[in-house]
Predict the structure.
Amino acid sequence: MTIDQLSDDDVVAEVRKLQYLYGLKREIRYAEKRHEEDTTESVAEHIYGMHILALYFLTYEDTEGKWDRAKIFTMITLHDIDEIETGDILGYVKTAAQRAAEADAMHVVREKSPSPLQEMMKQAIDEYEERKTLEALFVRAIDKFEPLVHLYNEAGRAILHKNHTTIEHSRSIKDEYVKHFTSTRRFTNVLHERMIAEGYFYTPPAA
């Protein structure tokens, strides 16, 4: 089946199946439990979600298997590694100074990493940041789409309202990147429309 053969309802059904695979985000190891009311997500859990989505969307975008999948999954694993130092910052409020601090943090993280990994980390992160290859553009699109899958539930609705996230905020950090790929663009558009209709995004009070 091609992406054009999926109805909007089919897209949502596919998202629900992907969310089933997201179940591992909440399975805690060592006989520990995450409290049901805890809706936090770690950066590592976001990365796992990206790995799942990349596997899925590659079936639409790389039907001949020509892309370098090792590079794709390496970039996914490492693209947010600077957040060990900086923490996560909402994309639509991130300042130029914070972006510069992230670049500096990337150097710090590499220097603190085992020496056999450092050159590989530099190559993967440089390729991701430069976004000159199909693989890097694809990873960027997956990175921007992934939060919609994670947040399309009641807990996600509460988070979006708590953070005063509007549809304009969401589109401002997604549309520019998902547009390069038919599948991510289609899924983003469908989820945005459903989430608008279902009241997921914050609406500022009238002046």
Summary: Residues 43-61 form the longest helix (19 residues).
